[in-house]
Input
Amino acid sequence: MTEMVYGAAPRQDGDPILPRWWRTIDKWSISAILLLFAIGLLLGLAASPPLAERNGLAPFHYVERQVVFGVIAFTVMFATTMMSPQMVRRLAVIGFFLAFAALAMLPALGTDFGKGAVRWYSLGFASLQPSEFLKPVFVITVAWLMAASQEIGGPPGKSMSLALTLVIVAFLAMQPDFGQAALVLFGWGVMYFLAGAPYILIMGIAGVVVLGGMIAYENSEHFARRIDGFLTPEVEPTTQLGYATNAIREGGFFGVGVGEGQVKWSLPDAHTDFIIAVAAEEYGLILVLVIIALYAIVVVRSFMRLLAERDTFIRLAGTGLAAMLGVQALINMGVAVRLLPAKGMTLPFVSYGGSSLIATGLAAGMLLAFTRTRPQGRIGDILSTGRRR
Amino acid sequence: MSPRVPLRPLARILEARAKGENPDLIERENKHRRHEDMRDRARLRAESRLVVLAGLFALAFGAVGVKMGTIASSDPSEPRAHAAGAAIAAARADITDRNGRILATNLVTHSLYAQPPQMVDPARAAAELARIFPDLDEERLLGWFTGTRKFLWIKKRISPEQKQAVFDIGEPGLLFGPREMRLYPNGTLAAHVLGGARFGQEGVNAAEVIGVAGIEKAFDDRLRDPARAGEPLQLTIDLTVQAAVERVLAGGMTMMNAKGAAAVLMDARTGEVVSLVSLPDFDPNDRPSPLVEGNPSDSPLFNRAVQGLYELGSTFKIFAVAQALDLGLVSPETMIDTRGPLRWGKYSINDFHDYGARLSVTDVIVESSNIGTARIAMQLGAVRQRAFLEALGLTTPTGLELVEAPGAKPLVPANWSELSTMTISYGHGLSASPLHLAAAYATIVNGGTRVMPTLVRDGPIQRGPRVISPETSAIARDMLRQVVTRGTASFGEVPGYEVGGKTGTADKPKERGGGYYEDKVIATFASVFPADDPRYVLVLTLDEPVMTSGREPRRTAGWTAVPVAAEVIRRVAPLLGLKPQIEPLTPTGVTLTSN
Output
């Protein structure tokens, strides 16, 4: 029994929940996340009316929906942050099996919404993308396996998690959704690196990823077309990327003005994948830099707080979640500025999208639960190693 | 690494068992310690890796931010839309005359282009455009507007009225881009000096303006240098003088029935070209296209004063005489045998009139005796003559700052024989441009220092190397003056300005070779004024002039080029600030009259 709960914050009876929560939560990160969501709503006001108009809805239909989903997402997030790491782990592992089952059933029950990839369940009032929910719980599961492998007499968790990862990557590649597949693989890689992977092996894996990409390029028309688009030096002005680049140019440093942007009328994905282009056009480089800074705050602060974490599981899971969040933001923005090949990936918290927002809220809640301040036996550190901290 | 801790501390367990305590507690405590150590080791290892990860993420976010910044700070180049009021800097520097009056400047106009995918009513747009621009074909426009083209230029430059008319069509697919065009406000004035400009690379928001000829091309890099855009290029041309010369020359060309004319007015001391005219001319605002057939020298684009290489006839005589004087071979009074014809091999040299058996050197110039000059040249010899003409700059391009100038290399005989020496002495066998002649005359008359012609005012001009002595120069000036007062150029007298000069009438060589035309001449008058204190050199050339007012057609320079040159001097000398030298009135006694 003692083993099971070892390292968790000791139960402190009589300490009220909310004050303790407020004391231990990473206030910088949670503020950054709330700000990002607020920016998302602000941009939604600009970016979604064209879509609403196309679909014959009230201009701010999608903003209203986003607010509703935002309330749900933040409820989920706050509830998750209240949980102990153990509780998070248990629920997440259960959730992992559910999400994995949902992913596996996609080819039979999913829909492609006419976009060429079967990624969604249509629920009538909303659509659900299982891979969005799978990402955070997958991270927890892998972290659990890897942490267990480091215990004395633990299972071979690293190999098991790798097998699990490959199966999921295979399912995602079948959809096809190479963006999420790469993200999942990346998340596993980060955790494996942190769990003590030899540097030579990291290099080897990087090589395999490149090789895999080349094979995918040869065999998948969908994938090859996007890579080709990236490699051509000229931006065709009528492609999504061309419009995005032009929008960033038009915006300049201070933007063309609220509501004055043009790119939202030309880009079908202006409210999701290319929301950053809308931000850049209407509010200029200033807002873009603010958004980048907010993501950087969440990611880097989480890493810094996890530096002091003694529990292997918490460290791995927290790092994995933060890395996934950061990389998703990086990929989304990197595509818009052509640092990366075109990849459909939402900007966490900012992009429109119901299930994606809830899933991201869940992931952020878990991350914040892990980065809460916990006693780390610092006096013990000094006594046992003699190192000053 | 901490020392290895045994899994089961047997000694302690045995001890505990002996005391009757529960050994499991010890085992568990031991396990706990091992676990603690392991976690600490893992954390230390993870610490550095986490820092690496954090650094990588910070770098990646930074990279995205920097890329965003570079894109945001770059100019929109895609022809979809353009920011309102994007100012276009006047990139090409102005060109002014010597007094700062504008010769070439820039004017903002608009170009008209179309984006067919944005068109609402292509048929109406095509019809309206064809109405506004009669040179556009409605059918073709409609074909373009309804075809697959996404972008097309319709007009490179349109006027404000045309722009408004196109705007009033109300077609969103018709768009305007600001265009800076080169404007020559004086029209044809100094056309050959300025040359012209055209659009280079064209974008929607701006277009390069590139010089195509003349000074615009020669100084293209200087004019396009953004750092010097506000600093006009100042020429030595005087706008007023240029206008007067052009006008008089055009009138003279018509009167003398010439097919072309050229004039170079040069400062005799500095080589600054004050006026440079070639007729027929053109409007650099609307440069004609080059001739595709026929002789390119018949095109108005041809700069006769700079590019035209002609045998300039008797005007060359002064060079042989000046050299002979300078070398001390002759004096102005030396008598030269002028009995003709002078035979050399199978050639014979004749004079226009028979001047008798002997003439003084001065009279050889004044009467323009070919035989006399040829005999003087024989004393010089080919080598010395060639060296002297080289020193005058008559065998190499002039170095004038026009893009056409380096191509105008005088035609000299491949084999500079004795016969060549004789013919060149009176201006046959060596072809040079009127500009060459002007520079050489300036050198002869200004006291003997070499003059390099220039069109650009930049700083003080250094005196060139000495070619002849000041005394020789003074004698040559006196001879040239006598040509006007009592010789072949008697129509060249302009009261008060002491014109001196030398005529030259050269038969035109046939284009296909095989001798000279009987009835086509190049008539040249190379003059200097005032002769006693030379300030300016004027070389004026008429191509195929013929005076038909007399009983028989007259073609000699004395009857054609000289009167035109005299009129030019009469008009421009006051403009140049020269005061006429008026003979003081003979003092007369006061006469009282009373009736």
